[in-house]
Amino acid sequence: MESVSSIGVTPAETSTSLQRFQPEPRSSLGLDFTTVLRSVAGAAGSTLTGIDPNYAALMSKQIETQQQMQLVTMESNIEKSKHETQMAAVRNIRVG
Question: How far apart are alpha carbons 4 and 87 in whole angstroms?
Answer without folding.
Answer: 58
